Amino acid sequence: MNLLSSYKALQSEVTTFRNSVREAISQNLDAERRYKGCAIMYSSIVEAPPFLFLGINPGAGRYNETGKKIEDDELEPCDGFEYTNALVGNYDYALAKQTRTLFEYAGMLDCLEISVKTNVYYFATKNERELWELFSLLGADINRQFHEYAFKWTRRMIEMIKPRAIICEGMQSFNKLSEIY
User: What's the start-to-end Cα distance of the chain, in Å?
Assistant: First the structure.
């Protein structure tokens, strides 16, 4: 199976689970307040990129920018790489600036532009604490699936993309990656 077909299969599984989560959220006002959307990729999908950037979960940036928790293209890969795209958009932020600066100092800005960015968990919240709260509010079954799917999908993404190196964006994503492998 080629890269795009593999991604479409993963995307289909994410869509099914995301829809179940949205249904559960619609029944729980506290969960609704925490949920800010869902996204898989913050870059193009590239096979054998120099780096895979792995965060813990999407923040609320997209929601803050658009005011929308649901978007038609939210599970599609982006054009380019978020940290370099932030320069031309009106949403540059500290982590994007710091990462670009580091890669610029290293003379590797061109590598950054062809890297891949995703997260262990695809559900957006204001912060990590709210991510854990969101899924604990949705009950034990969804909470269990949330972790199982995240680990399964992260492993699949890594195997599918075959990055040369993985950069964990924070201790929590490093710890989760250690649990997966």
Answer: 23
**142/156 Cα distance (integer angstroms):** 20
Length of the chain (residues): 181
Encoding tokens for residue 98? 């710091």
Q: In what order do the strands lie in the sheet with 51-55?
A: 116-119, 51-55, 165-168
Burial class (CB in 10 A: 0-12, 13-18, 19+), 46: middle
The backbone region for 148, taken as left when phi is positive above 0, alpha when psi lies in -120 to 50, beta otherwise, is alpha
116 vs 42: CA distance, rounded Å: 7
What are the structure tokens assigned to 160, written together? 């599918």
Task: Output the pTM of the full model.
Answer: 0.92
Structure tokens belonging to residue 51: 């780096």
Residue spans of alpha helices (H) in the chain = 3-25, 29-34, 61-66, 82-88, 94-105, 109-113, 128-137, 140-161, 171-180
Token digits for 178? 């250690």
DSSP secondary structure letter of residue 81: B
Q: Which two tokens stand for residue 172?
A: 């929590």
Model pLDDT for residues 54-102, shown as the tens digit of each residue: 999 988 777 777 778 887 788 988 888 888 887 776 677 888 889 999 9
